[in-house]
Design goal:
- The complex is a heterodimer of chains A (163) and B (307).
- Chain A has 163 residues and is α+β, with helices and mostly antiparallel strands.
- A 5-stranded antiparallel sheet of chain A has the order 1-2-3-5-4, covered by helices on one side.
- Helix content of chain B is 32%, strand content 18%.
- Chain B has a 9-stranded mixed sheet.
- The chains are: A alpha+beta (163), B alpha/beta (307).
- Chains A and B meet through strand 1, strand 2 and helix 2 of A and helix 2, helix 4, strand 8, helix 11 and helix 12 of B.
- Strand 1 of chain A pairs antiparallel with strand 8 of chain B.
């Protein structure tokens, strides 16, 4: 079995969320939803069962309007789901969310670049002003009013953002 | 749980978090989970996220690790991924160079009966028989610091020697799972600080002109070094945004076989790293994906190599 894709983008805040895999075996491609590899602390909801129930409700409500990918096998630890090439209704929703995040990231970068363009003394051409021996990322912005420097440092995309 | 001290490294606390983690993992199991959740909910500084976040396990949660396998984790750090390995494998040998960190692992997983902690450098490990799988996450890049000889080419030789040592620890037919950053990853092309140097941008992109022992590699360099060390043909997996806190891990074939959309990758950017905003990273990701070369410019690789 080859895992082509593994995804779980909410573990950081919610470690009980499910992992999604797209796997290939002798029967072709499948989607697998499974519980997290870490132990579930007591009291957290049985997400796998919830997902199967929700799928059944959605499938019944959808009727002939659209086809949800079928659950091929509902095990104790994982759901094996039909892989549908192209976009399912759920994948379409997920993609819209991704596009929103993508657009937000672009907008944030463009905002910062615009801000920096207005501060010509701050971001010089790295090809002509490279510090010796290495270009370094400044931890403070010289020759910039304090209010401007502070606003730069506050942005995650700023040259002065610190880890 | 047994701890075997192979080398005296008692002086070293690597990043200053160890004392906090000692105290945290001394607490009863029932309190510990809630405490970790509470710490993560406050969006702590990067190092604490790095040590505690369950997202770290995603780097290998997809990997096929047989239940009867013996796994050696080289450079286990404070054990962020060790718990996953204990969940999956028959027995885990967690090797950590620094004693303070080895102690964190021992306290963190005190209830695991399939874990042995080995404290000491890689060159101190003596196994009675080679293991099924060697796991090495975020370690190889520091080899020039910790494994350099006095009179050798420090830019290449220590890294080759490290892989040779790993090759000797894994049985024929076994595997090496190695995670490392890509020196030509999108983040570095876009001006992010070189993670192993903590100063300056573009160092890896320009070939480390001020090399001092820590470095990383590009995909083809990794392939060549694996071949030179006697490993088989590697399979590359691509963690996004990087191997440290992955949200999405793609098999190298997935970029062609699945309908991976630029929005799914371009929005995953390791913002914790300082950067010169030279370029729009999300748009660069889309361009590389459109050209079919994203597999060589992902920020990190997890390399699955047969022995």
């Amino acid at each position: 079995m080859t895992v082509l894709l593994a995804k779980s983008n909410l573990l950081r805040r919610a470690p009980w969320r499910l992992e999604t895999l797209i796997v290939e075996d002798g029967d072709g491609l499948h989607v697998v939803k499974r519980g997290p590899s870490s132990a579930d602390p007591a009291g957290r909801p049985p997400r796998l069962g919830t997902l199967a129930e929700r799928h059944a409700v959605l499938a019944a409500a959808a009727g002939d309007a659209f086809a949800l990918p079928r659950i091929l096998h509902a095990g104790e630890r994982e759901l094996r789901i039909e892989h549908v090439a192209g976009q399912t209704s759920l994948a379409r929703l997920e993609r819209r969310l991704c596009e929103r995040r993508f657009a937000a990231a672009q907008a944030e970068i463009d905002d910062v670049l615009t801000l920096l363009d207005q501060l010509p003394g701050v971001l010089a051409d790295p090809m002509t002003t490279r510090a010796s021996p290495r270009p370094s990322i400044p931890t403070a912005a010289p020759d910039v009013p304090a209010s401007n420097a502070a606003s730069c440092r506050g942005s995650t995309t700023s040259a002065w953002a610190t880890s | 749980m047994p701890i075997h001290v192979l080398e005296d490294t008692a002086e070293a606390a690597f990043d200053g978090c160890e004392a906090t983690l000692h105290a945290l993992f001394d607490r009863p199991e029932s309190e510990r989970c809630a405490e970790v959740d509470a710490i993560l909910a406050t969006a702590p500084e990067w190092l604490m996220q790095y040590h505690l976040s369950p997202q770290r396990r995603m780097v290998l949660s997809w990997a096929d690790i047989p239940a009867d396998a013996t796994v050696l984790e080289v450079g286990a750090g404070c054990g962020a991924v060790t718990g996953l390995l204990c969940d999956r494998a028959g027995h885990v040998l967690a090797n950590e160079k620094f004693a303070t960190r080895g102690e964190v692992i021992a306290r963190r997983y005190a209830d695991r009966d399939n874990l042995t902690v080995l404290v000491g450098g890689l060159d101190t490990i003596m196994l009675t028989e080679p293991v099924d799988i060697v796991v090495c996450i975020g370690v190889w890049e520091y080899t020039g610091v910790f494994l350099a000889g006095d009179d050798e080419d420090r830019f290449v030789a220590p890294f080759e020697r490290f892989l040779g040592l790993l090759r000797g620890l894994v049985r024929p037919g076994g595997r090496l799972l190695l995670a490392i950053e890509n020196k030509l990853g999108v983040q570095y092309l876009a001006g992010a600080e070189e993670d192993h140097l903590h100063h300056g941008a573009l160092a890896g992109v320009e070939g480390y002109p001020d090399y001092a022992g820590a470095r990383t590699f590009w995909r083809e360099e990794i392939r060549r070094q694996m071949d030179a060390a006697g490993f088989g043909d590697p399979t590359f997996h691509l963690p996004f945004p990087d191997y440290k806190m992955p949200e999405l891990v793609l098999h190298e074939d997935a970029l062609e076989r699945l309908d991976v959309h630029a929005a799914e990758l371009g929005g995953l950017i390791p913002w914790h790293r300082p950067r010169l905003p030279l370029i729009n990273e999300a748009l660069l990701t889309r361009a590389l994906l459109d050209e079919g070369v994203m597999g060589s410019f992902a920020n990190s690789f997890v390399v699955d190599v047969p022995a």
